[in-house]
Amino acid sequence: MSAGNDHSPLSFTDLSRLVLPQSIVLVGASEKPDSIGGRTLENLTKYSEFTGALHLVNPGRTEIHGRPCVASVLDLKEAPDLAILAVRADTVLDTLRDCGKIGVKFAIVFTSGFGETGEAGRAVEARMREIAHSTGMRIYGPNCPGLNNMNARLGLTFSPAWRIDRRPGPIGVATQGGGLGRSFIQSMDRGVGIGLWCSGGNEVDLEVSDFIHYMADAPDIKVIVTTLEGVRNGPRFMAAALHAARRGKPIVAIKVGKSEYGARAAQSHTAAIAGSAEINTAVFRELGIIEVDDIDELIDVASLLSRATPTGREQLAVYSFSGGTAALASDMVGTAGLKLAEFAPETIAALKKALPGYAAVDNPVDVTAEVLVNSEVSYATLKATASDPNTDLVMVPIPVEYGQTTVLLGESLVKVQGEVTTPIVPVWMSDRTGEGHRTMIDGGLMPMRAIGNTVLAVKRFIEYGRWRAEFDQAWLPLGAVGEAKTTANLSEARTKALLEAAGIPVPEGVVARSADEAAQAFRDVANGKAVMKIVSPAITHKTDIGGVCLGIASESNAKAAFEAIHANGCKACAPGEIEGVLVEPMLPSPFVEAVVGIHRDPVFGHICTFGLGGVSIELFKDVSRRLLPLTPKSARQMIAETRCYELLNGHRGQPACDIDALVDALVKLSDFVVRHASQVDELEINPLAVRPQGQGVTALDAVLSYQGMEPSQW
Amino acid sequence: MSAGNDHSPLSFTDLSRLVLPQSIVLVGASEKPDSIGGRTLENLTKYSEFTGALHLVNPGRTEIHGRPCVASVLDLKEAPDLAILAVRADTVLDTLRDCGKIGVKFAIVFTSGFGETGEAGRAVEARMREIAHSTGMRIYGPNCPGLNNMNARLGLTFSPAWRIDRRPGPIGVATQGGGLGRSFIQSMDRGVGIGLWCSGGNEVDLEVSDFIHYMADAPDIKVIVTTLEGVRNGPRFMAAALHAARRGKPIVAIKVGKSEYGARAAQSHTAAIAGSAEINTAVFRELGIIEVDDIDELIDVASLLSRATPTGREQLAVYSFSGGTAALASDMVGTAGLKLAEFAPETIAALKKALPGYAAVDNPVDVTAEVLVNSEVSYATLKATASDPNTDLVMVPIPVEYGQTTVLLGESLVKVQGEVTTPIVPVWMSDRTGEGHRTMIDGGLMPMRAIGNTVLAVKRFIEYGRWRAEFDQAWLPLGAVGEAKTTANLSEARTKALLEAAGIPVPEGVVARSADEAAQAFRDVANGKAVMKIVSPAITHKTDIGGVCLGIASESNAKAAFEAIHANGCKACAPGEIEGVLVEPMLPSPFVEAVVGIHRDPVFGHICTFGLGGVSIELFKDVSRRLLPLTPKSARQMIAETRCYELLNGHRGQPACDIDALVDALVKLSDFVVRHASQVDELEINPLAVRPQGQGVTALDAVLSYQGMEPSQW
């Protein structure tokens, strides 16, 4: 079978014959104009440009609207590429079986009443999945609005809106849930061109990841848009996203479930697990997926990316006919950390020539409203602005519908955009629209709705450009997903031994089993002062139970400390669980305390979290995250993107820290976890002392949680 | 003279006869339909409902459109309340003089070509101001679009848009600059009702503060909206804002100039000094002014406040016909820190009764699209939701234009809103509009444009309610504005002496002038360990020049430290500038280091800044600010609103700090500066040690910058 049959986790079926089939069978075809089957038939025949074979199935009809109709899929002479099921819920399974039997490649199931209604429905869905697995036929749905291929003008949908959704273009949309997807589709009325919309409903088989992967290869799609309530299969999602990244196609995404309310609502809506919002955001960011918060933001960013490809170094020009508006827009550009271009002398000369003395010819340009009644002036000044060699994007905030003035401005905008490649982005700020607004939409300029929206979209556009410039094509996430089913924790001393073997510096320590051994250890390892700590896998908060002594300065101190720590330990756990008392030299100041943790995320696999200890993490949540494996480059990036990076760089007269050694330790830690991915659930070094340049790092405390075999047998 | 003549800084002229004059003279009246004078005449006669006397002045006409016309203002038999000047720039001054001479109360000057064109224009404006001062006639403009009184249907404007700006209502708008003002006005097309728009152009006399003050008293205005590029007179602005606050009228504001770009652009546009954005934001917040960033946000917040008055305890319901949309909206409600209402049992019962089993009847409500084709169901479910006793606001996100479905929903929304007081806020998310959208607008529901916008508006609405509940009607800001013209800094020792006299604890210290005196001081004050510091008003960074020794443990230590510190001091300044070396006992741990600074802001007067030392301030800018005078309540609030507050409250096993003593110290510091407001430019305590509960606070270091007399003579 050419399509389908490949359900291995990281491979993807070619969906070309789903998106653009050569032959279709509509099961449940009807002549009733208001029925699902009737509307679908109308969409296929009247409002699509489908030239392939269309078969109709309806047990009660021999022809519909003059087209032949058979009673069953089994009556077809050849297997169509695609079956569309517009049938009652209780006949879906049989119909799917018939389709699979004759070799149909894809089936779209509109019918609802399955997983979304409860346990019984989910059982039926499991049987659909079995049919897909056993026959190789891929299933789209059930409970879905169909698939809209605007670029081929093929509506595999029952929606009456299909006939008016007529603005093809380079954006592909893959959604979970139809409402938000259709909300995006209606941005066509803002001039946004959309080529394909896939919304696989309950996703019993094909899911968002499959469509992202397809769109990454589709030559007519340049930008991919998705809305997600939960990522069902992290590794497949990451694989699809990386495929798009390698093909140079940006993905813009909304992921519901950042708050408890959202996670709960998403779960009750699609039964998808929302996952941790912080992890999700970090993973999206690492994969170059542009995460946004709302549908209008999705539209803004996608429309911008459909017009231009960012480099990450963009500088803006602001052009307006209102001084206050120009000032507000410039202000928001600055607040967002974006850059206004410094105009070249020839730009300023051209603006001066065209404008009266009281207009502002510097960036921001305020041509004043009086001037815009002359379309030659608006053309000349816009052309000069958009042709400025230092300007990469022109923002044109328009505060008001202003009759003929805004019509002429719209015409100039469209004309100039036809002559320059620098994107010109009008911002129609007013609730009053009119002919000027329409002119910009018809001219393909996709006006945005507010300055703030525009600045945010441009910021994300530029950030994506920066990510793209840095993207490592060869990198693959580890993807060792699954629940953390921790068998046991490893004691500090044994964890440190593993770290040392992995190449990460730890203090030279000895586990003493008696007071005398502690005294001996003090002689052997302490260089003046020692620290002593209880060693037991059963005790995680050593300080809380009196299991830590600092500043041990003599052998007798060491003996006394052993007795005290051991006694406290015996109160906290069974004596048999105590491995002894660790004696280590105290690390001399100065050093900065970092925290490095790796944990197994059930959706995406192992994630490394980095931050500096103390209030930065606790109060300000100043951490960065990366999927494993880390590379020297990504490790350095994750250190640099915390706000506390400044402290490592030598803050206020302190010596600069050994960042090279920190990078090295992070990579070695990552390598260690990669080697033992199936066992390691969590590994934390807290603190990891980062010493002055040239003096390296030292893991002062560490704990490992693992599943399966004892680490000694790894 | 009844109106005008009062130019003292904190009093305000009654503007009733400007906003609704009983008689008007239009100078420069014209029959040419496209001239300023012609359009104004048309607006006054054809598109206004003005019943007072209207006089026309034009030296070349004896009548216009059948109305008598005189050659000069001086030919009028009585002084009209208002003169409108639609005359050439070179005749404005003479006309204003004539108006003042006959006793006109107010003059609106449309004419441009003054301050905005440069130095010469600013000189003419100074003469306008002289006329206002000498005659008592108040001037509005020049270079302004006029004044629109929608509630009285009186257009004192030449704008051709006046005839279509026809949605009166409870919002009053006072703007600097016309473009952003008109952008707001056009929100009428979203259903927002606006009663009055004042935009005083170059503001030679009347300015935004005057209109805010007027609107605070105006019975037809409930919400005040303003856009500002700079606050010209801080005390008048604060007085107007407090007047509005006492009258219970919220002010929603945009202030341009948060970034360097914006400050620069605003300055070149209106020549207003933008001021510090952080200070501005803090002052607005303290005065209850709701600061927003963009025009759409201004519209969202103002429209919400025009519909309801918040208590600060609002809980939301989310009602949608799309599960994904309901989930996204709930998510954003949660992310913003807002609360979803827990429905009462009767609400859930009513929803269950009306809806099929697969609909979600919990909050968020997802009625599903199928259901909404039945308007009885949409009415019943909306009514149940909006009547829920725990719900204070219903958000209805509508992802798509959906033909008859959204029309029926719109009708149900309007009907239910007519029956309940709980505000129902539709969110029309789609770029496609239609009859449903129109139904909501016509029904007064002012649909918002995105979920994010709505959540942000509701958050600000609730926060304002919280501020309002806490507002201290009696409080008045000190308002000792002016440039900081520092004469000198005071040394640490002398600053501490002032603090001690003001009731703020300082360490018991002695200024030693020799090594022997240092040894004696060690005996007298050090309780085991001492700290020694150079004392000189010329040295601000003592540590940097080797002017500080910690942990002095003996008299001989103290002697040696004196010699070293003194020698280092002599390298950093003239020996005559050294007052000696301060010897103080070292404060025993534990304590938390706070930073308290008061500085004179040129616009608003003295401001107190509070934060905790270290990375919280330096990297995370975690500070709070208040105008002086502080009260015990406001001091406690400013401490509590820092994120570091948690540390003072006893973080991770540390003892809770003496917050009562900290509050007391802040208030005493404020009282001290209030007593010496004309002298104190800046006073900083850094660090202020906050010790465990019951042990008080201690100012460990402090410096004062003053102007005028020596503090010893205060």
Oligomer: homodimer
- Structural class designation of chain A: alpha/beta
Helix percentage of chain A: 25-40%
How many strand units of chain A?
Answer: 29
Overall radius of gyration of chain A = 32 Å
Strand content of chain A: 15-25%
Explain this structure to me?
Two copies of one chain form a homodimer. Chain A has 714 residues and is of the alpha/beta class. Chain A is 36% helix and 20% strand. The first copy, chain A, is built from 23 helices and 29 strands. Chain A has a seven-stranded mixed beta sheet with strand order 3-4-2-1-5-6-7, sandwiched between helices. The radius of gyration of chain A is 32 Å and the shape is flat. Residues 1-7 of chain A have low confidence and may be disordered. At the A-B interface, helix 5, helix 8, helix 10, helix 11 and helix 16 of A face helix 5, helix 8, helix 10, helix 11 and helix 16 of B.
